[in-house]
Hints:
Layout: H1 8-15, E1 37-40, E2 43-46, E3 68-79, E4 82-93, E5 97-101, H2 108-114, E6 125-133, E7 136-137, H3 145-151, E8 152-155, H4 166-176, H5 181-194, H6 198-201, H7 214-226, E9 232-236, H8 244-257, E10 262-266, H9 270-276, E11 279-284, E12 287-293, H10 294-299, H11 304-310
Parallel strand pairs: 1-6, 5-10, 5-11, 8-9, 9-10
Antiparallel strand pairs: 1-2, 3-4, 3-6, 6-7, 11-12
Amino acid sequence: xxxxxxxxxxxxxxxxxxxxxxxxxxxxxxxxxxxxxxxxxxxxxxxxxxxxxxxxxxxxxxxxxxxxxxxxxxxxxxxxxxxxxxxxxxxxxxxxxxxxxxxxxxxxxxxxxxxxxxxxxxxxxxxxxxxxxxxxxxxxxxxxxxxxxxxxxxxxxxxxxxxxxxxxxxxxxxxxxxxxxxxxxxxxxxxxxxxxxxxxxxxxxxxxxxxxxxxxxxxxxxxxxxxxxxxxxxxxxxxxxxxxxxxxxxxxxxxxxxxxxxxxxxxxxxxxxxxxxxxxxxxxxxxxxxxxxxxxxxxxxxxxxxxxxxxxxxx
Length: 315
């Protein structure tokens, strides 16, 4: 039976701004959901209370279509006067690896951040359309954003371990969830094993995490994300700062993890998308141009823009 965690210590830590990862930094920052504006039904709503018929919606509830982890319906995102995404509709399938590709600034990372409402933290962000996780609109009023981010985890572009031991990095989330000492220890071991790091660190768990190599640090961050029991793992260019050997290990890890959870990855590496993704979406200027099985998209793209990008003629 899947564990369920409510408000408890984990919720209060987030509300007090004590735990939040952002790209390239580990300094806790306040949670500022009030900066987001959700647009729906011809009206704008400031703050976390967005749109939807359920005034007290939760990310737990009736499941979506069979095999669908996340459904996106007419999603558009603006940062002030700049439109980052325009009318995106797609379905992310469960237990598959989905890759987002496209040139810089095409909106792929913006879409990724929509899946666990990280865009809430960007002043002036406006969202319209719907994102359904397990059949529930995550932008509906009353959604527990902390619980959402536990169930939809994220790994950032550069490794960002906390300035503490290897063990404490992975134990951080389970401790905030209120798990007992024995449960925390078991969760740490399990997560390090899933992240293919256990054999390399089992004899030095109390060593500083920052002493690990770059590739080991990124796998540690993956273990830290896995330790709170996500169902979806979002990865924003997780290999861009790594050497080829470390990249290969992360890719092998991604392929092994898809048996347990759904993975969505943003990458500029077309070869990486071809190697690990079951489905690939190509974005250009905020539009979803093409979304198809990876082998088909690379071999027989429908749109000329997709063909030019995957053959290296632009981007």
